[in-house]
Amino acid sequence: MLNKLYRYKMVILILFFLLTYFIHANYNQLNKLKYPTIRTEEKIKLLSTSFGFSIQGYDKPAGALNSAGFNAGLPEYGIPALQEVDSGMGIANPGILRKNDNSTALPSTLLIASTFSRDLAFAGGEILGSEAKDKGFNIVLAGGVNLIREPRNGRNFEYSSEDPLLSGIMTGSFVQGIQSNNVVSTIKHFALNAQETGRVVLNAVISEKNARESDLLAFEIANEIGQPGSVMTAYNKVNGVYASENEFLLNQVLKKDWGYKGWVMSDWGGTHSTDKAISAGLDQQSGYEYDDAHYFGQPLVDAVRTGRVSHERIDDMFSRIVTTLNKHDVFKKVKPLTAKNYEQHAITAQKIAESGIVLLKNDGILPLKKDIKKILIIGGHADQGVLSGAGASQVIPEGSFLLKTKQGIQVFHKASIVDALRKELPSASIIFESGDNFDKIRNTDADSIIIVANQWGRETKDHLSLSLPDKQDALISSVAAIHDNVIVLLQTGGPVYMPWRDSVKGILEAWYSGTGGASAIANVIVGNVNPSGKLPVSFPLDASDLPHPIIREWSTTTSSPRLPKKGFFDINYNIEGSNVGYKWFYKNNLKMLYPFGYGLSYTKFDYANFTLTQDSEKIITLFADIKNVGSDFGVDTAQVYMYGPDNSVRLVSWSNTSLAEGKTKKVTFKIDPRLLSTYDVKNKEWVMNSGKYTFCLAKFFGDCSREVYFNTKKQVMYKYN
């Protein structure tokens, strides 16, 4: 009897495991079974989105939440509305149409990347995802992956890095955090959207090999880690074909080589056809009001009727969307967030900001002593708030300072750097000057002078120069010429020149630091927090050193999808190829103002016992001991760079290590085989060439505190099916 009962239990258990396997392996088929009665015309209704607010003569759709995108869904079949929201630095509220709707303003993506912390990237995404869910949104338009090929790109603050490994890991972790809240996230803008100037008309020219080893590798890693529900295409063309119609990018690379199961959406105004786009792999037209036609509306119905688009392709498009929504359980009801949740979000956002601020120079002036008597703070509207970037990702919390300029409205989050420092240094006299009255600056007897210098970045416009705008370089130079106690605090969206670098005592890069930015900056300045941020992008000395020294003037072309297209042009990215950022400077033996990975600390770290192993699966693992040899607790980001036999260099791993003074920790670095390889286009495989490979354990690119090497024969490291 017991044996019989045991056999029954085993049969039930086996059936359970088979059913579980069937569910995971045949999710698309299950969705076809779940929605067997939906006619093709009904499925097509899910394949496009409109704006979620009134625009250009279109009224706000019923049920929309005043956000970027909306689709009414198919409620009669149990598919509720799709509510899409712009994000990246928080939940955007365009035109503040949603009254009394506040969101946590996260630090910029570039600042988050400066932490080099997967955990903090996840935490930032978790904040964004939970607040999106709380406000009724189920699709979050975040996850900027594009490599920083162009340091003058006005939108660099929305991206992570010039390096594919750092960009892929940080964005993938951010997306993981977002999607942990029963919402779908995108990664974007696929692919080669490296500048804003002319983004809707430019043609990015690049070989497959160069693309696979740079921009596409960043997306590939982000996709593997984050498993985003959707991928958003770029506005630009790639090798003569719009990204939203690019068969190679969408069908070959994304869906076939990478096995992507989610859906591909266009950017708003980035769809140009019906048949061609669908054949290439585009699954959903976004914000059709910006396009020349509602291509995935009636024209798609007609294309199916005439046989130009198959019913099977419509089933695939529909199933990709519905499967993804069900996979992430986006229609699940959750408990509303409380005021305490938002308070905790602000604390986490401040922690991220503190970890991403980069100390670039310190001639013994930082941290400021707690008994300092007098501080003069100059410029940057530091008495009003901290600067943020502009565009679709813009977040405007209640109480923000709005500065009207010729270029547009600049948003400063309400926390003031001046007030934050006064809180931390209550016995000090802290005075603010805008910078307009130089006599007061000349005659000051302040013990320390902090100059806050801003570079405002925004979507659709790039910087024509890396010089600080509004004569701020001249102001800094003038002040430093008469005072020897100057600290410069930068709030920028990317690299800038520093002609005054040798004249000042300290430099901090705070990027766009978000809701808790002022307190984070103050904590670093007074030493409550030991700075640990590292540059995720190289700072060049001069534009003449860049692969593309001149950037086109924005008025000569079209950067907005709403405007008539003019000024079509090519950008030849084969000039630098896969040697983006620090790799370009290395290949061409060029010096940098500050290298990738650079960032100082108030303590010191030492590296020892750097060793290497390789297992039978071709995985290389490195080990090292890291010791805090300074006098303060600190976080070290040890970086490993591989120097190959073909004169190549790549970041292949890093570690974040928190250490009290005098403490040592053994760390492990595992290396992705693709990072040791070059891509073989003909055989669709990553190949490690024969020769000597040197691994440098470094504090930043160009440093080599410890090194190990090994020799190898040519071997295939990774192959696509």
UniProtKB/TrEMBL annotation:
Positions of the Fibronectin type III-like domain:
636-705
Any idea which UniProt keywords this protein has?
A: Glycosidase, Hydrolase
**The protein's Enzyme Commission number:** 3.2.1.21
Q: Name one GO biological process term.
A: carbohydrate metabolic process
Q: Name one GO molecular function term.
A: beta-glucosidase activity
Report if keyword Hydrolase is assigned.
Answer: yes
Please report which protein family the annotation says this sequence is part of. Belongs to the glycosyl hydrolase 3 family.
Name of the protein in its database record: Beta-glucosidase BoGH3A
Q: Which organism is it from?
A: Hafnia alvei
What's the source species' lineage? Answer: Bacteria, Pseudomonadati, Pseudomonadota, Gammaproteobacteria, Enterobacterales
